[in-house]
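B., you asked whether I could sanity-check this one before it goes into the benchmark set. Here's the sequence:
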Amino acid sequence: MTFELPSFAVEDAVRAALAEDLGRAGDVTTQATIPASATASAVIASREAGVIAGLPLARAAFALVSPETAFESWIRDGDEVEPGALVARIDGPARAILSAERVALNYLGRLSGVASLTARYAARVAHTKAKICDTRKTTPLLRAFEKYAVRCGGGANHRFGLDDAVLIKDNHIAVAGGVVPALRAAKAFVGHLMKIEIEVDTLDQLQDVLREGADAVLLDNMSTEELRQAVAMVNGRMICEASGGVNLDTVSAIAETGVDLISVGALTHSAKVLDLGLDIAIL
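And here's what the prediction gave me:
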C-alpha cells in the first residue's frame, strides 16, 4: 500500500521546524567549520528494528535548506527495517546536510516510532477482525503526521479533530442529563453526513443507545466479559469500539471479544522514537 502526505502540509511544517532550529543566525557551528564549497554524502540508517514513516518530511528538510541536495531512499514509508538497514542517502552541499540533519531525524524518528508501536499492536490482533485505531492524544501541530504514521504501521484513523465527527463522551452525557437527551440533541444538530458515536460505561447505558440509535458506540473500560455481552447486544447494528485499559498484554483478549475497533492513545502519546542516525559516508 502506498501512503502519501500532502506536499503543502509537509513543506509548511518543515519550514517552521527549520526556522525554529536555525533561528536568526543559522547554523553557526557548520558555518564556522565547513567551507561553503564543500560537498558530502551521508546515509541514514536504522539502529533498531521497526517500521519507517516520515520520509517525505526528511526529504523536505534537506531540500528546503538547499535545493541542490539529492535524497534517495531504498525503502518506502510503511516498510519494516532491521538494525543496520540503510534508509536513505543524501548528496549535496555539506552545510545543507549538516544543518538539516536534526530536523529530518526528529520527524523520521518520531513518526517511525509511532508506526513501529502501531505495528506491534496490529500484529497482536491480526487473527481477529478488530482494527487498531488512534485518538486525539497527539503532539500539538503534529496530529496529521502522527495519524499518517499510524496508517503506515497498519492502524486506522479515528476522527482528526472536533469538527469531523460527533463523539459524545461521559462529560457530555453528564452535562446533557443522560445518554438519551445527549443523543437526541446531537441528532437534531448535525447533518445527515455526520457520524455520531457515544461512549458508554455500562450495559444499561448501552441499552439506551440501542433504543435511540447511533452510528457507533465506544465501550469504555469494560471487562472482556462485558465487551462480549455488549457485542452480542449490538449484534451488528452499529460499530463497536473498545477503549481504556488497552496495552500490548491485553489487546489480543479485547480483540477476541468481537469488537470492531480498539482505540489506543499510547500509539501517539507514548511511542518511543525509533533510533535512526545520519553519518557522513566514507566513499
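One thing to flag: The CA atoms of residues 94 and 197 lie 52 Å apart. Otherwise nothing jumped out at me.
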